[in-house]
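Minutes, project check-in

Agenda point 3 was the complex the collaborators sent over. CS summarized: two entities, 553 residues total, and the question is how they sit relative to each other. Sequences were read into the notes so everyone works from the same version.
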Amino acid sequence: MKNYLLTRKEILHLARLANLYLADEEIEKYRRQLSETVNYVKNLSELNTDNVAATNQTTNLENVTFIDGEINERQLSQEEALSGTKQKKNGYFVVKRII
Amino acid sequence: MEVLGKSLLELKALVDEKKIKTEEIFHYFLQRIKKYDPKLKAFMTVVDRDRSGLPIAVKDNYCTKSVRTTASSKVLDDYLPQYESTVTEKLWKNGFSLLGKTNMDAWAHGASTETSDYMLTKNPWDLTRYPGGSSGGSAAALSAYLTPAAMGSDTGGSIRHPAAWCGVVGLKPTYGRVSRYGLISMGSSFDCPGPMTLTVKDNAYLLGLLAGKDRFDATTTNTAIPDYVKNLDTPQRFIIGLAESYFENVDNEIKSRLNQTITVLKKLGHQIKPVKILSPKYAISVYTVLQRSEVSSNLSRYDGVRYANGRHFFGAEAKRRTMLGTYSLSYGYYDAFYKRAQKVRTLVINNFLAIFRDVDLIIGPNTPVTALKIGEFEKYPFFGEIMDALNEPASVAGIPAISLPIGLDRQGLPIGMQIMGNYFREDLILNLAHQFEQETEFFGVIKKGIERYQ
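CS then shared the predicted structure for the full assembly.
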């Protein structure tokens, strides 16, 4: 298979999707490095996967749920939940304006 | 009382017999950290708040309530968890106290500990070399006897790799054997918390304390927990598969030490049988695609709103992985990469299951070379992923595997070997590992490592 090189536009699109800040010199660096990785993992197509089911998890557990009415011991108090934030107001987290 | 080199269970016995107090043991290790850690840089945080238990070091990706937990990333620079991880909670309930949090590759992304946003941990065997990673701080601290035991986490080799390079015992349990609750998520379908120790018995002891169902981690299972320590008293005879495909691109000295190990195992009465394992190059690809995808999802939660810092604090490796994961999950590439990797993951699992119908355990090398010199990682393609090529198949399948020291190379650096087992057969792995230890004392590797730091 022909070696694939991601475009600058693709890198910027990925950064936007991933909500990451990239400096100008990083764009070219990631373009090269991501392309190298993408070209390596293409070997996955060497194996026949017709009629092979996808693995989502390895322990084969099903329907793992909490029992209704159980006390959730993990619940944090409002004060605890807010203890790590840099910006709070009236007992709430401050977030960026959305609209 | 001479403490130097005593294993965790030896120290425990001395405490139980009231020959030494935990306060004295704590003092002893704190003094050693003070003396040697400025050079080794294994610890992110040293903790001295409770000396009532046996000291244990914990990788900095386990949430410890009110104790700074960074995963060696500046994103979490000032993060004080509001809750305790299940693993550490179990440790404190079973007679341990926190000695410190150890350095790691940031978010556990790497096999060198150099992607830590804070510092590079040095290999105690040669300060110009990497300790391996990502649990490099835990491995280095243990190897230089700055702690009698440590917790690591293994997603694609992060316990076994530094255990091999620093010459200690490191176990990656079966996925789902030990709870991930409170372990900062990296690749959620791979992450395995596990013990790193100086002896196999110490490892068996810690696994027994930590294994089991946890209602806070839905992926833990109800599978019965054998008495891992007691099981060591009855040596079993095994049919051992030899992973021949793992020997490609492996350094000749590692190969010859492995052959010597095989001779020992035969002498102990085990039968060695070559097995056909899928080339590790496919497991690397499965791992790379799925793990990066999971990373991009797991790291998306760090927005600096609820705690810690925002996304511009991410280092180069975290960004690189997030970008690739975003790529493999995005429209147009999902089927070609993510879905296909999940299918090949099935092939890797089926391959192991077929082999375990014929053999009890599988052995092979776990690193292609011994500890690299600082700066050498860049020379290897694929940013060092290749260093974990032999560890990733077990991670992809979710089976347990241990790394043991089997000797030193000509440069005096530790060589590791890996024993893999079928799902939830840590008991068999530990049984064989213990026999090997009894017979060889790991060719003196662990002892020599400690003696360097009198």
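Noted in discussion: The mean pLDDT of chain A is 91.
Follow-up: revisit at the next meeting once the mutant set is ready.
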